[in-house]
Design goal:
Blueprint (H helix, E strand, L loop, with lengths): L3 H15 L1 E7 L2 E7 L6 E5 L10 H9 L3 E3 L2 E6 L4 H15 L9 E6 L2
Antiparallel strand pairs: 1-2, 1-6, 2-3, 3-5, 4-5
Helix pairs in contact: 1-3
C-alpha cells in the first residue's frame, strides 16, 4: 500500500513535469500544489483563508517556521524539485501537528495535471 508521503512525492513529480494542480485532503483539511503556467514555479498552499481564524499564534508561528507566508489570505510558499523530500515532511507535520488529524489516514486526491 502506498503511503501518503509516497503518493505526494509521485504526484509532485508529475506536477513538476506537466503542470496543473493537486489537492491532498484528509477530512476537511487540505494542502494543495499548483504550477504557475507563466513562470513555471510550483506553489505549496496550506491553510485556506477558511481556517486562518482557527489557528493559534503558536500554530501561525509553526507555518512561518516552515517558510510559509500569508498571500491572498492563504499560507503558501514556493517549492523546488530538489526540496520535494522536505515538502513530504512538511505535509506530515501540517496534518499531524497543525490540523491535528490522523496522517496515516489515506489522502483524498483531486488533481488536474496537464499531460
Amino acid at each position: 500500500m502506498t503511503t501518503n508521503g509516497e503518493l505526494l512525492l509521485k504526484k509532485l513529480q508529475l506536477l513538476e513535469e506537466h503542470g496543473g494542480f493537486i489537492v491532498f485532503a484528509i477530512d476537511e483539511y487540505y494542502i494543495q500544489f499548483y504550477k504557475d503556467d507563466d513562470t513555471g514555479e510550483l506553489d505549496f498552499e496550506a491553510v485556506s483563508h477558511n481556517f486562518l481564524d482557527t489557528l493559534s499564534t503558536d500554530l501561525a508561528a509553526d507555518f512561518e517556521r516552515l517558510g510559509f507566508k500569508i498571500s491572498e489570505e492563504n499560507y503558501s510558499k514556493k517549492i523546488y524539485p530538489e526540496k520535494f523530500a522536505e515538502v513530504v515532511e512538511d505535509a506530515a507535520f501540517i496534518f499531524s501537528n497543525i490540523y491535528l488529524v490522523d496522517y496515516t489516514k489515506p489522502f483524498e486526491v483531486t488533481d488536474e495535471i496537464s499531460y
